[in-house]
Amino acid sequence: MANGSFKKKGSAQGGANPNPKVLVAGWIGSMVLVALVTVLVTYNFSDDGSEADAGAPEQVTQSQPDRDVVESSADTQIESSEATDDAQVAANEPAPEPEQPQFMPDLQLIGRQGIVPLAGANMPPSDVVAGWCRDLAARVDGVDTSDCMSGAFADSGHKSVNGRALVMRKIEPSKQQAGSGRVLLIAATHGDELSSVGTVFSWMNIMADKGTPYAWQVAPVLNPDGLFHEPPTRVNANGVDLNRNLPTAGWDKESRDYWRRVGFEKRRFPGESAGSEPENKWLAEQIREFKPDVIISLHAPYGLLDYDGDFPAPRKMGSLNLHRLGVYPGSLGNYASRMQGIPVITVELDNADEAPGEQEIAQMFTDLNAWLDRYFRSVRQASAGNGAAEAG
Ligand SMILES: [Zn+2]
After folding, report:
1. β-pairing, 153-159 with 165-171?
2. Quick one: 237 and 339 in the same domain?
């Protein structure tokens, strides 16, 4: 941990330096905006309805955003020309760098209108995400602050019991290998299983390097209050085991029976009512809105692979072997697989603190992707056939 905080300090300083890619994106953005304002101004002066889409009803509803673009582009143009003048006056000094925050919102606005693609990976993280990254890097081995900050994470807007941000990341399929599969990846449902977070970050790095055929939504820390508690706790800040609290069928009775069976063990308290916890409301919303085809949830330290679903289970992931545990009242396997038909792979790493070695992590991800490939091929074949075949 001492080593971790030293590393954090260095990374934070590195993260404060201007990112050359962002600056290049800013300059490109400024050039595009100048070109755009020229085009728009031209249209305004020759606004006789001759434009192809001018008569379409959509044009009316789009007029406000268009005006925003013109206004912000005009500002940008003025600043750009001022910068050029300054550079001419003081020839020995480089032109002032455009300030990122003034350019980025414009790029985003234009991107939404389909004129310029979003420079998503180069967007600076929000303060919330930057703070989340710094805290996480100080806490979890295998998380690097600057990697995290350049990882296009987003504040979901949801908060934990103690008001910590619940942060996620979307990873799009690489164009050349795009398929239709959607995968939800979750870690640290139990806050004291830190190795799950480091493993997920390593997998995200592999995807950043090699691409992926699938659309991923990644929630690396479902239970930040547990993770950042000193010492970390399995339960959330309300003392609830999130993996016993999801609103499964018969929860009211079954969760009480379960709670009694485990001797009222505090670590496994299912909560006062089904789905009561804000972290689980966020999880349920992700399932509802992202509509994953498969869910992968990382835990520790049982050193095995658990699976809930109809499609044949993965036999092995790295050194972990399949060992089905069954489902519990309020567990994710029960909630997503039994109730909604979404296969759930539960990865139980063999150590809760230290993530597996680099090779093991890579092998696990290779094996996982091989299973995903089999699964999605089967789904495609089933939907291309008579629709009677079962897959998940
Ligand atoms: Zn766990």
Report:
1. antiparallel
2. yes
